[in-house]
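stage 2 :: seqdesign
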């Protein structure tokens, strides 16, 4: 498993992980955590390694989480602008992106439990970045001019 470069799948929405696919998804997520850490990343989505399914790994609240079939169920009012890069575009300088500062999310974890989390700041940014990947949206297309 490796992070694919020149990966056309990045612009296509991924398909939901079905019940029968969960075990494989979890196994892949454990490899993806290693891969993210090796590349000094704080998040990695299945589509980045060529698997067009809605799951990712992300460092949230200080440790890596396995996130299957993510949803953002609530957005706070405030936004923030921060620099983001992406392991799929290693040569590209980081750009500014506007994100929601607080979100409430739901996903299935590695124990097949439905998890609800409130995330803020960097945790919220990472989640939104990886969630975007599952929707076929990449940060390089969201870069804005200016910011702080
Ligand atoms: Zn990315």
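stage 2 :: out
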């Amino acid at each position: 498993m490796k992070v694919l470069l020149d990966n056309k799948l990045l612009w296509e929405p991924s398909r939901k992980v079905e019940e029968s696919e969960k075990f494989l998804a979890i196994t892949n997520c454990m490899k993806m955590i290693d891969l993210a850490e090796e590349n000094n990343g704080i998040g990695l989505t299945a589509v980045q390694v060529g698997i067009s399914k809605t799951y990712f790994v992300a460092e949230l609240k200080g440790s890596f989480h396995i996130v299957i079939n993510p949803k953002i169920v609530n957005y706070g009012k405030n936004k923030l602008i921060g620099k983001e890069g992406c392991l799929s575009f290693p040569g590209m300088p980081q750009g500014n992106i506007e994100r929601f500062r607080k979100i409430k999310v739901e996903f299935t974890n590695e124990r097949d439990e439905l998890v609800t989390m409130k995330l803020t700041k960097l945790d919220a940014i990472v989640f939104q970045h990886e969630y975007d990947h599952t929707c076929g949206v990449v940060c390089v297309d969201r870069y804005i001019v200016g910011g702080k």
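stage 3 :: structure notes
- The first strand starts at residue 43 and ends at 45.
- The chain has one domain: 8-141.
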